[in-house]
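Budget justification, computational time. The allocation requested in the original proposal was used primarily to generate C-alpha cells for proteins on the priority list. As evidence of use, we reproduce two of the resulting records. The first is shown immediately below.
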Amino acid sequence: MTPRVDRRGESRSVRRGVDVGRRPHFLAEREVFEGFPGVVMRAVEQIPVDRASDPGEAFRAASAALRSGRVVVIMPEGTITRDPAGMPGPMKTGAARLAKANPGVPVVPTTTSPSER
C-alpha cells in the first residue's frame, strides 16, 4: 500500500485498505523505534528506516515481508506531509522499487480525501 497521510497522521484509507485479515507493516524512521514506542514498534514487527546509514536494510526487510505474504505500507513521500494545506511533497522511488523487486505483489495506492479531514 502506498498511502498519502496528512500532517495529523490521518488516513482512514489505510485502516480500510488493510482490512484483509493481515496486519500491516509500516516503514517508519528509525527515531520512532527509540524508548517505549520502539518496544511497541518492534513487538508488532514494524520496519525501521535508517536514512543516515543504510536505508537498504529497510528495503530488504520490506521485500522479505512482501515475499512472505505480508502487507507493507510505505509513504510515497518518504514521510508524513508537513504542509499546512496538506499538499504532498516530492515523491520518492521506494514503492516503485519494491514493486519492481517483487513482481506479482499488488501495489494499492491510497489517499486521504478532503472529506476525511
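The second record produced under the same allocation is shown here.
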Amino acid sequence: MVEHFTHYQYLRVAPTAEYYAIKRAYQQRILETHPDKHSQRTAHTSALPDANEPFAEPHADLFNKVRLAWHILQSTDRRKAYDAYLKDLEARTHGIIHDEVGLDEMDYDSDAEEYLYPCRCGGDYMLSRQDLALGADVAQCTTCSLRVVVEYQVELDDP
C-alpha cells in the first residue's frame, strides 16, 4: 500500500499551525533535509525522521517535498485550497459523518447481535456488540458511504 503524507507532516506542524510556526518549521526542515548536508552526516542524526515518521525517502526527494509543502502552505489561498482538498479526501476515504445517534435510538437485532439505525438512502447504519466492546463509536451505512457517531456510555461493574 502506498502511503500518502500531508504537507503538514513533511514540515512537522499541525494543520492548525499559524503562518510563522509553519515558516519556522520550513526553515528548520529545509536545513535538515538539504542534500548537500547529508554527505557529512550519519544516518542517526536528527535530520532524519524517527521510525514513527513517514520518510523512508532519499534526501533529495524529501528536500523537494519540504519545498513543495512550503510553497503550498505559505500562501493563504493555496493553503485554503489544500485544506479543502484534504477535507474532501478524508470524506471520500472514510465517509461523511451524517449525524449523531444515541445507542438507545438504535434497534437491537438479538439474533445478529447488532444495533441498526435507518439511513436516508434506505440502508442501515450497523454496529455490532463486538464493535461496541472494542470501543467503536462510528457506524457505517451498509449501502452508502455515510456514517453516524453513536453516543453511549460504558457502564462498569462494581467489584
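A brief technical remark on that second record: The helical segments are 7-11, 19-33, 59-73, 76-94, 129-133.
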